[in-house]
Design brief:
Layout (H helix, E strand, L loop, with lengths): L5 E3 L7 H15 L3 E5 L4 H9 L6 E5 L14 H9 L3 E2 L9 H4 L3 H10 L3 H15 L8 E6 L7 E6 L10 E9 L5 H9 L1
Parallel strand pairs: 1-7, 2-3, 2-5, 3-4
Antiparallel strand pairs: 5-6, 6-7
Helix pairs in contact: 5-6
């Protein structure tokens, strides 16, 4: 089997339409019906809802959890209503790779940093699929396409088989659709986002 992977030289929202186009191709080729999408402010979720409007696909949108580095949540409640009204799901949940203080372990941070070696988006794809499965929105073994990015927008997409955090060993990455060529570590990402 031969499949193409796209590598982005730069990160940012400009990659989102290309990522969505690549995802659409893979959805159709694989007969996948679910996209798990990371979206912090709702801009990517709104864009995905419009882009995939005519596709037979369900979005499972995973924003930041409440009280993550700020009071409240940046994801707008009117967009939650719009997404749910269009047949999609929005799942607010504990961000699994940010729980080191809760579980008195550095394992979540270690996992996050290891996955960031591939890209920030790869880390977020893993996290969002686990979170969505934990919330009952994905069945164990279900084929999905996970979409995330570096800071803002989308630049990473993986074909995955879902699993919950209770059965992490069942989580699979089947295909790498796209990612940044030269990923940033967390300090570099924070520096870039601060500019």
């Amino acid at each position: 089997m031969e499949q193409t992977t796209t590598y982005f030289e730069m990160f940012g929202p400009a990659n989102t339409p290309v990522t969505f186009g690549l995802v659409r191709e893979r959805l159709r080729a694989r007969g996948i019906g679910t996209i798990v999408l990371a979206s912090t402010t709702g801009a990517t979720a709104r864009g995905a809802m419009e882009f995939f409007r005519d596709d037979d696909v369900r979005l499972v949108v995973v924003p930041h959890q409440y009280d993550f580095h700020r009071d409240g949540n940046l994801f707008p409640q009117d967009l939650v209503r719009d997404l749910v009204g269009a047949g999609h799901t929005v799942h607010f949940s504990t961000m699994l790779f940010h729980t080191d203080g809760l579980y008195a372990s550095t394992a979540p941070i270690l996992m996050a940093n290891l996955l960031r070696c591939f890209s920030q988006g790869v880390k977020v794809c893993f996290e969002c699929v686990l979170m969505a499965a934990d919330g009952g929105h994905l069945a164990s073994g279900e084929s999905v396409i996970a979409v995330a990015g570096t800071g803002r927008g989308s630049d990473t997409a993986l074909v995955m088989q879902a699993a919950s955090s209770q059965h992490l060993e069942r989580l699979r990455v089947n295909e790498l659709i796209c990612k940044p060529l030269n990923p940033l570590n967390i300090e570099e990402l924070r520096e870039q986002m601060g500019r």
